[in-house]
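Cross-posted from the bioinformatics board.
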Amino acid sequence: MSRARRSRTEANPRRQILLLKTAIWAIGVTPVVWLAVAFFQRDLGVNPVEKIIHIQGRWTLVFLLAAMAVTPIRRLTGWNRIIQVRRLVGLFAFFHACVHFLAYAGMEQLFALQYIVADVVDRRYITAGFAGLVLMIPLAVTSTRGWIRRLGKRWQKLHRLAYVAAGLGVLHYFWKVKGDTFWPLLAAVTLAGLFAVRLVYRRKSRRR
Amino acid sequence: MIIRSRKPSDIPSSEITPESAYINRRKFLGASAGIGAAAFLGVDPVRADTAFPGGHSAPQDDEPNTLEEITSYNNFYEFGTGKEDPSKRAHALVTSPWTVKVDGLCNNPADYQLEDFIKPSTIEDRTYRLRCVEAWSMVVPWRGFPLADIISRAEPLGSATHVAFETLWDPEQMPERMWRPRIDWPYREGLRLDEAMHPLAFLVTGLYGKDLPNQNGAPLRLAVPWKYGFKSIKSIVRITFTDEEPPTTWATQTPREYGFYSNVNPDVKHPRWSQAREKRIDGSKLFGYRWLDTQFLNGYADEVGHLYEGMDLKKYF
């Protein structure tokens, strides 16, 4: 094998990660930019705020499930480097959740605290969604290298909360829809499947 | 109250509110106020008693929504659960010929051709508030005739206490698969007989002075303006007189959330939406709506409040 070829295989994994990260950035930023442009062009239909909230909610779940999929993919494929994109995917989930919440709190409720509090207390789907968002805050804050070092083993434990947050997000969606539960159920099955993969590998590694 | 009521011989609402009013809303607000008053003077005096007993409550909040708003944002789950699905998919619905079956406890049960069903009635235009249980609302210039007309012609028996309605269910024309959403089709609704006989209960055949668009429930739908929108059943194929409260789709599907009466009531909380306020769809606003306080019985309490005297409306929600 020539030296040139070997160096290319060496460089490839890093390039792959860079490409993947670029794609994640593109997918992460595009919906928000598109929504902003469409909103100011009055292109979001009769109830633009509702549309923004719905679309951002869906992207939050997509990124949450993608973040939850990183470790299972790593286990199943043995592609260890993929772990390097997990933080970025998780932070984009948090970013979309924040836009989703701000569209609700700011555009829909006009930051009227009494109505927001009433919603969080009275309506279980909002209670679940809000709890999920609050849980994501410490995860986002402690996602930096400094916090990972400082927390050591406790960091892993803390970040298992991501599963709880994702579960709450799916529950929020399930309780919100009326009649057609197809998409929330698909999200729930996906999340359960990802969790199952993790459990299977954990049992395997314990047996060893 | 009816916001406006008018015989079709008067100025058609299609002339009052241009379909492009959305673009020109400010101008239109000024113009329609005057025409509204003219329409008031032009109303059939016999009907005027029932039409305007309480006068206007908040006219500045009750400008009709544009045709575009009314026809591109609504629920008609047979065509999908998205608000824009009905406008995209309902064109497949064949509304002619159309048969309405009248049966149950009445002297004149029959299968009517739609034209024969409508012919004996005087068609009029009425502008009603529409309050969706999802906490958004619109103001809609319907065209149609009182439900009481049909009921009188059917001659319900003394034992009849309720009227049940059914929407067409035809999976060939309605693209949603049977299991999505998992609703026990056909869609069913119902009213107590005295509610159905009330002059405000209206059978709709048109919108903005034209034929009713498919997505809004063509060719025949109900408008019961003091109840949440889902009571105003669309694309009716059957009207049945019964001696008990008929099962209705949403109350059967989710009894915790929806009752048989489903009167608009800001004091009865719904698990998904606060009913204290509503988003009035308004294309002149940046966010597409403005918040209004929801009125008891959607502002029609003076007219229909007596129907519920002595009833605990928190229990019978």
